[in-house]
Amino acid sequence: MHTHTTHKDDRNDPRALAAKPQFPRYSPGKDPEADLAYLLTECKKHLPKPDEDIITRAFRFCLDAHRNNKRASGEPYYVHLFEVALIVARELILDDISVAAALLHDVVEDNESYAVKDIAAQFGPAVAQIVDGVTKITDISQSREITQAESYRKLLLSLAKDLRVILIKFADRLHNMRTLDHLPPEKQRRIAQETLDIYAPFAHRFGLGQVKWELEDLAFKFLHRKEYDEIKRSLKETRRSREDYIRRFAEPIRKRLDQSRLKYEISGRPKHIFSIYNKMQARQKGIDELYDLFAVRIILDEADKNECFLIYGIVTEIYTPVPERFKDYISVPKKNGYQSLHTTVIGADGRRIEVQIRTHSMHEVAEKGVAAHFLYKAETLGLEPALADNDFEYWINWMRNIREYEGEEMLPQLMESFKLNLFPDEIHVFTPKGDIRKLPAGATPVDFAFDIHTKVGSHAIGAKVNGRIAPLDEKLQNGDEVEIITSKNPTTTRNWERFVVTHKAKSQIRRFFNEEKRQKTIEGRTLWERKSKKAKINIGEDELERIVVSLKYENKSEFYYALGSGTANIDIAIDVIKARLKSGATQLQLQSEVDFNVILHTARQTSGGVYLTGTAGGSADIVFTYAKCCNPIPGDDIIGVVITGRGIKVHRKLCKNMQHRLVAGNDDRIMPLEWASNEQGEFIAALRVAGDDRPGMLHDITNAIVSYKNTNIRNINISAAESVFEGVVTVFVRNTEHLSRLFERLRKIRGVKTAERFEG
């Protein structure tokens, strides 16, 4: 077999701005007809059988539509559209429809004389749909942040129909960044920051390596010009010695590959500028102190992927590998379809060099991402099975689901969700059966649970990572094996939203509480209708709205939710509203604060559960609430503290927050309390468990709890280190007798040293 080797270097820039593809220089803007001829030549050179007629008509149309427009540089505006079309044709290599849409993408946005229907009439629905998707929303009545979020939403909805929308958007942003010098500094920084925050990671998400690198470097240039210039100058000064070093490094590899009669290509390059800057910041070192700035890429021509592993063996025979720096993205591709073997080896002088090994087809995907997948697709460039084959299905499904982000109040959540889905770094974790799940770096067991299934996530009470008990907020590492322990009942808490990082987990947690609120609101309305009818309260919807607003509820729905969730007492609410109606008042004045506090801070389950000592249960008209600092349960010795306007707060006598009041002995707000003998509710209690860790410990703990009288676990937070575990299990119990039985069962478990009530 013929052997082909090359060593590439850059003749202009040390990185050519993140390895931008090199094409012949051409300066448009002087002669439109010459520009059209050049564009057609490039399209015929790079695209399969392009339709010259539609490209010609689109060029002339944009020329006419923008004849009075100039760019900030003073060039005719059509030059920008010409350059975007060139990027589409020869860098992304799409199709003639894409080139036409690129030429027309600003017509509707910048010219009031034209609408999307005009584009459709002249160029067909495919071109019109792409142009509409790329067109930003402009509404001077809204803030820039709102219109930006709405534009992203529109872009993503269009993208779910036709992938070419985002590819043309990338080409548009790429040319804008290449010509950003002509804008005012403040606008440069704003656009550069948006590019770094949104467009560069978005390009990575779609596997567009070249586009991502160039966008990052250009954004970095305008955000940190001094640092950018210093790194660029240093790379230029060391270019010749770097090239010599790479040549010497590659020589023994080349000889071995020639002997194996493989058809290959070797190229050497430095890391791109923004990547180097990040390494300098992370390691707090200057560029002269970094030794892993080099990368060598070996590309096999249409080889079997197993030959990549053969070459890996050859490279690591010649040079000493750094074991922890080996990454197999061939067996386990990234979410964006990227495949390659990465290894870092120790070269001459102790320098570290990263070696990337891939086939030519893998390289196409690495450079052009989804554009490579859709190259030469005759039927459509829309959503095809190729997406699912390369693990884009989740991303596309998310884009289809963004229809839920409607209304101005939802747009901030859209932007948060959008950014969450752009995560550039990912980890691979395993289920107990060995299935791989791809998650963003920083993901937790809760993210993993929701990734498996919504029900697994919403019922999670604990996790085992690599066989050891782990808290639900622990950050997972690449290669971890994760097992989720679930409860029969939902256990979702709002606290989870604080540490989860995936869009699916965040959205499902919010959806759970939104649905819970909806159900509680319905229950509250039903309760109100039944009780108000029984109390013979005749009141219209509008009048009820005025009264509940005067009671400091935002609207009737919030009032119903308070009733349904038990945070407001229906009987007291009835009495207050009857008094309001009797007095004819629709606005509360001096009494409003007291009425509101009495209603709001009264829970349904507390009435009748506690009474003042000596009243024999005759204190039901007093508002009682339970203190969260000590979580009293029936059977505890309890006392109460009178809170002005809020009734009596119930504490355990052993509560640390009460000790100073009891010692003082003269606090007239302390009230002796007793439990009602008929109290039947469930109460929260926390159990502290500790002991020697072992396989199956978490299962034994949860089983011991739930198997006793169907005890419901609300949450588990247990961590283990050096064969010892400790943590807290939050449960629902009926009384202290119930709690004591749980302690007895836990203490019988092999390895459990401590089982006691948690006082935190």
Report what the structure shows.
- The chain is an alpha+beta fold.
- It folds into six domains: 16-225, Hypothetical protein af1432, CATH 1.10.3210.10; 233-373, 2-Layer Sandwich (Beta Polymerase, domain 2); 425-501, Ubiquitin-like (UB roll) (Roll), CATH 3.10.20; 511-604, no CATH class; 609-675, no CATH class; 683-757, Alpha-Beta Plaits.
- 48% of the residues lie in helices and 15% in strands.
- The protein contains 32 helices and 20 strands.
- The strands form five sheets. Strands 1, 2, 3, 4, 5 and 6 form a six-stranded mixed β-sheet that branches. A five-stranded mixed β-sheet has the order 12-16-14-15-13. Strands 18-19-17-20 form a four-stranded antiparallel β-sheet, covered by helices on one side.
- It is globular.
- The model is unreliable at 1-19, 137-143, 374-395, 402-411, 586-594, 600-608 and 616-620 (pLDDT under 50).
Topology:
Blueprint: H1 16-19, H2 32-46, H3 52-65, H4 78-91, H5 96-104, H6 107-110, H7 116-123, H8 125-134, H9 144-159, H10 164-178, H11 185-205, H12 209-223, H13 225-237, H14 239-259, E1 264-270, H15 273-283, E2 294-300, H16 306-318, E3 320-321, E4 327-328, E5 341-346, E6 352-359, H17 360-368, H18 370-373, H19 385-389, H20 393-401, H21 411-420, E7 426-430, E8 436-440, H22 445-452, H23 454-458, E9 460-465, E10 468-470, E11 482-486, H24 496-499, H25 503-534, H26 541-550, H27 556-565, H28 570-583, H29 592-600, E12 610-612, E13 624-626, E14 638-643, E15 647-652, H30 656-664, E16 670-675, E17 683-692, H31 697-706, E18 713-721, E19 724-733, H32 736-747, E20 752-757
Parallel strand pairs: 2-6, 13-15
Antiparallel strand pairs: 1-2, 3-5, 4-5, 5-6, 7-8, 9-10, 9-11, 12-16, 14-15, 14-16, 17-19, 17-20, 18-19
Helix pairs in contact: 2-4, 3-5, 4-5, 4-10, 5-8, 7-8, 8-9, 8-10, 9-21, 10-12, 11-12, 12-13, 13-15, 14-16, 25-27
